[in-house]
Specification:
Layout lengths: L11 E3 L25 H6 L15 H15 L7 H19 L11 E3 L5 H11 L4 E6 L13 E5 L2 H10 L4 E3 L4 H15 L8 E4 L1 H16 L6 H4 L2 E4 L2 H21 L1 H8 L2
Helix pairs in contact: 3-5, 9-10
């Protein structure tokens, strides 16, 4: 799921994560060859568990010795593998992504496509963009098991960190088209809904394809979240559902045209929002 890039006419689509794909279809996650590699964001988020100690009791001698050894190791650790150093890596990913996507010209024939850059529905979206003469972009992610980019990308970006990659999806899209997927798809879907709900980004269409797949989630949002007043009625209305590609295209075009009209009518409001 992803939204279009730049304020130009482009829209991004999120694909199926493709886990446990059957019937001979390719899997997004390739099986490991030997030992599984540790990804960079795993290292960032890892914090080893420690023995629980009551704050009113003195530390056991074993724990004191371990803490002393930990401090000694920290003093002799290469700075480039510490968390503060990772800030520079994260910053470089933001810079590379912004640099690659911020100067993309408008698509003349239609919408450009941003996907996760992988196989399956993402590959289909990128292929369709190229065949239609539009820009095709893939934002790939480093995974524990290798995922290669599909062969239909005009711009291919590689990210170590999920949150940097999601920023690119949200910043450079004007619509999200969400296909059936797993946890990654849900993460991107609800991140977009949260940003729209809290007005961190302007409202843009979030379209779910395959009503049979999404029916349970939609019913739970309306019958449980809304009924218990965890969200407002207008929040539940942020999700659009369609099984008709022509209707989905119409939704995207109409939303884009309305956004353009609002921009022309009140450019300062949009500019204020863009610097939040």
């Amino acid at each position: 799921m992803n939204r279009d890039h730049n304020s130009d006419k482009k829209f991004s689509t999120t694909g199926q994560n493709g886990n446990n794909r059957r019937n001979g279809r390719s899997s997004r996650y390739r099986p490991p060859k030997g030992r599984r590699t540790v990804t960079e964001d795993e290292r960032l988020l890892h914090r080893p568990p420690q023995q629980l100690v009551s704050p009113t009791e003195p530390l056991p001698q074993e724990q004191e010795r371990e803490d002393e050894h930990a401090l000694e190791r920290a003093l002799h650790t290469d700075f480039t593998v510490t968390d503060p150093w990772r800030v520079f890596r994260i910053m470089s990913e933001f810079v590379n992504g912004f640099d690659a996507l911020s100067h993309i010209p408008p698509s003349v024939a239609g919408f450009g496509i941003i996907t996760g850059g992988g196989p399956g529905i993402m590959e289909a979206a990128n292929k369709g963009a190229q065949e239609g003469g539009n820009l095709s972009i893939g934002c790939n992610i480093e995974l524990p098991f290798e995922q290669g980019p599909n062969p239909y990308l005009d711009i291919s970006l590689d990210f170590r960190y999920f949150f940097v990659r999601k920023t690119m999806f949200v910043k450079y899209s004007d619509a999200f088209v969400i296909f059936p997927g797993g946890f990654g798809t849900m993460d991107e879907l609800f991140e977009a809904l949260l940003l729209i709900q809290t007005k961190k980004v302007r409202n843009f269409p979030v379209i779910l394809y395959d009503s049979k797949f999404w029916a349970g989630l939609i019913n739970w949002i309306r019958d449980t979240m809304l009924d218990t007043e965890k969200i407002m009625p207008e929040d539940a209305g942020l999700l659009l559902l369609s099984d008709d590609p022509a209707e989905m295209c119409r939704m995207v075009v109409e939303a884009y045209q309305e956004s353009y009209r609002q921009e022309r009518a009140n450019p300062f409001a949009r500019r204020e929002q863009s610097i939040r």
